[in-house]
Amino acid sequence: MSVTEPTVDDASSPSAPPPIARRTAFMTKAVAITGGFLALLDTTIVNVSLDATRARFGGINQVQWVVTSYLLALAAVVPATGWLATRFGIKRVFMSATALFVVGSMGCALSQNLPELIAARGLAGAAAGVLSPVSTMLLTRGVPREQLGRVQSLSGMVSLISPLLGPTVGGLLVQAGGWPAVYEINLPLGVGLLVLAARCVANDASADRSERPLDVVGLLSSATCSVSLVLAIHEFSENGLNAPTALLVPLVLAVVSGTVFVVRELRAAAPLLDLRLFGHRVYRLATVNVFCLGFVTYSPMMLIPLYFETARGETPVMTGLWMSAGGIGVLLAGWLSRVLMKRIGGGATVVLGIVVTMLATGPMTTLSSQTPYLLLCISLAVRGLGTGLTIVPAMTRAFQSIRPQSIPDAASQLNLIQRVGGTMAIAVVTVVLKHAAEERHGLVPGAFAYSFTWLLGIYAATLLPALALLVAERREARQSGSRV
C-alpha cells in the first residue's frame, strides 16, 4: 500500500501555510524591503541636492557636513541594532526607526539654517543606521536556511538599484520643488510604511525577546571607533595624504577604541555584538568579501555620474536615466545568483561576478568624449549583472553559515562593514580622480579613464578573498559530506 505525500502546493495539506499566513509573510517581506530601500535611497538622493543647498545656505565645505553628519550618526548606532532588536523586538524597533526617520526628514525639510539641517540630517542618519539592518532582520526572520538565497537576492537587488535610482529621482525632485523636496518625499513614504508595518507585520514571539543588558562600554567604544574611522576616511577623501596630522588623529583613535571594543566583546558575559561569529571560517571570509566588494559596488557610483555630467554635458536627470541601464543587469542577477549558488556555490558565484564586472569595466578604461552611448549602456548593464552576482552570494553565505539566533548580530556587523567598505571605496576613488584631474587640468574624459584603470586593478585584488571563500566552501562541503 502506497501513501501519497502531501505537497506544499496542496491547500488542504496540514503542512501548507494557510492563506492568511502566506499573505502576512508576503507583506512582511514587502515592508522589510521597502524599509531597506528607503534608508539606502536616502543616501544617494540627497547628493543631487547639495548644489541647490549650497546656493541656499553657503559654501560647499560647510554643506558637505549634511552628508558627513548622516554617515557619522549612521555608523555610531549600527552596532546597537542587534541589542535593540533582541531587547525590544524587531517589529517595534523597525517602526520606531521608521518614525524617527520621518521626523528627521521633516526637520531637514523645515530647516531655516545650515546647523538645523545638519542636526536633522544626523537624526535621520541615526534612524537609517537602525532601519537598514533591522530591515534585514525582518526579512530573514523565520526563513529556513535553504531559502535565505531567495530573500537575500531581493535585498541585494534593492541595495544595488537604490544608488542607480537616487540621482534620477533626486534630480527630478530638485527641479520640481527645490532642495527641500528630497527630504519631503520621505514623509508620505515613511508614514505609509508605518501604517503597513502596524497592520501587516506580526509581533515578535516571546521566545525572540531577550533581557540582555546593554553593554555600555561596548556601545561607546564601537561608536567611537566607527565615527573616528568615517572621519578619517572623509579627511582622506578631502585632502589625501597632504594633511597627515588631521588624518592620523582619527585613525589612532579608531585603532585604540576598536581594540577596546574587541577585547570587551570577547570578555563580556553579554556583549553588544557577538564577535565569536568570526571564528567560523565561512562567515569570516564572507564578511571580508562584503567589505572588499564595497569597491565593486560603490566605487563607480561617483565616477559614472560625474563622467556623464562633466565630460558629456548631461543633466542630472538624463544621467540617472543612462545609469538606469545598470538596473537591467541587477534584475537579471537577482534570479541568476540563486540558480548559480545552488549549482556552483556562493564562492564560485562571487568569483564569476567579479570577473564579469572586470570585463564590463574594460571599455570604461578607454573613455573619451566620443564613446558611443550604446557601448556605455551595454557596459553598465553587464556591470550591473556582475555586481549583483557578488554582493548577494557573499551576504547569503554569511547568513547561512550561522545559527538563526545570531542573525541580529550578523545583520548589524554586515551592514556596518558594507557601509564602511563603500565609504572607503568612494574616498579612494575621489583621491584618484582628483589626482588625475590635476594632471590633466580638469575633469576630462582621460581623468575618468585613468580612474577606471585603477579600479580594474582593485577589482582584481578582490578576487583573492573570493577565491578564499570558494576554497573554504569546498573544504566545508568535503567535511560534511555534502555538495556545495
3D structure, described in words:
- With 484 residues, the chain is mainly alpha-helical.
- It is 77% helix and 0% strand.
- It has 21 helices and no strands.
- It has helices spanning 19-45, 50-57, 60-63, 65-77, 81-88, 90-109, 114-140, 148-177, 181-184, 186-200, 216-239, 244-267, 281-298, 300-311, 316-323, 325-344, 346-361, 373-400, 407-440, 445-461, 463-480.
- It is globular, with a radius of gyration of 22 Å.
Keywords:
mainly alpha; Growth Hormone, Chain: A; disordered N terminus
Number of DSSP E strands: 0
Element-level helix/strand string = HHHHHHHHHHHHHHHHHHHHH
**Count of runs of 4 or more consecutive helical residues:** 21
Strand content: under 5%
Assigned CATH superfamily of the largest domain: MFS general substrate transporter like domains
| Main beta sheet | none
From the spread of the alpha carbons, the general shape counts as globular
Low-confidence runs:
1-16
CATH topology of the largest domain: Growth Hormone, Chain: A
CATH architecture of the largest domain: Up-down Bundle
Number of domains: 3
Distance between the termini: 36 Å
What is the class of the largest domain in the CATH system? Mainly Alpha
Alpha-beta content class: mainly alpha
Work out the helicity level.
over 70%
Q: Gyration radius, to the nearest Å?
A: 22 Å
Let me know the average pLDDT.
Answer: 83
